[in-house]
Amino acid sequence: MGAMKTDLSLVALGMVASFFVSACGGSSDGSGSCGATAACGGDIVGTWKITSSCLNASMPDMDCPTATISSSTLKVTGTATYNADMTYSHTGSINGTGVFNIPASCLMSSQGTLTCDQLNQFFAAVPTAGLTIHCTGSTTCSFTETATNLDASESGTYTATAAGTLTETTTDGDETVSDYCVKGTTLNVSEHSGGSETLTKS
């Protein structure tokens, strides 16, 4: 999305979109990082049930190096299916809470610095099913994102190398690159941007 010094609508949209783009920080235990899986490749074709996950509370794509992530309990449940014709589908939902902090200097619009009250009014005016975002603070704004059965379903095409690199491209053109490793009926996936999942073949 570029620098966050933009219109209020783009700020909100970036925060909503952040649930679907992992960024470093946050884990299932709140420790601030997701474990990485060493790539080993393997036969990924089939339907897999997510048995554990580590999703990262993430911030909108913006030029704000002083923004920080406090914690994340975000988790995804559901299934992932990789077909032999190189198409895939994920069906599931996200639950949990992520907290991140953005200095007011990064919350600018053409009318000046956005306040938490202004942002909260906008979040209330453009609700997203399963997602709430609430802002508190002044000098530094603390954003709490709470997901309740937030739809995490997607589909698209994929490539999987023998060395263990998985590239997924959604029907909207968004790309995610991960390391993957299949051992028996277990699939471990670690996104290069930080999130990770363990799945079991159905």
The overall number of domains is 1
Round the mean pLDDT to the nearest integer and report it: 79
How are helices and strands ordered from N to C?
HEEEEEEHEEEEEEE
Q: Looking across the biggest beta sheet, what order are the strands in? A: 1-3-4-9-10-11-12-13
Query: What is the makeup of the main sheet?
Result: 8 strands, antiparallel, barrel
Instruction: Give the overall shape.
Output: elongated
In the predicted model, the low-confidence regions spanning at least 5 consecutive residues are: 1-32
Rg (CA only): 18 Å
β-strand amount: over 45%
Structural class assignment: mainly beta
Q: What percent of residues adopt helix (DSSP H or I)? A: under 10%
Architecture overview:
The chain is mainly beta. It has one domain. Helix content is 10%, strand content 47%. It contains 2 helices and 13 strands. It has an 8-stranded antiparallel barrel with strand order 1-3-4-9-10-11-12-13. Strands 5-6 form a two-stranded antiparallel sheet. Strand 10 and strand 11 form a beta hairpin. The longest helix is centred in the N-terminal third of the chain and has 10 residues. The N terminus is likely disordered.
Would you spell out the secondary-structure blueprint of this structure?
Layout: H1 8-17, E1 46-54, E2 68-72, E3 75-82, E4 87-103, E5 108-109, E6 112-113, H2 116-125, E7 131-136, E8 140-151, E9 154-160, E10 165-170, E11 175-183, E12 186-191, E13 196-201
Antiparallel strand pairs: 1-3, 1-13, 2-4, 3-4, 4-8, 4-9, 5-6, 7-8, 9-10, 10-11, 11-12, 12-13
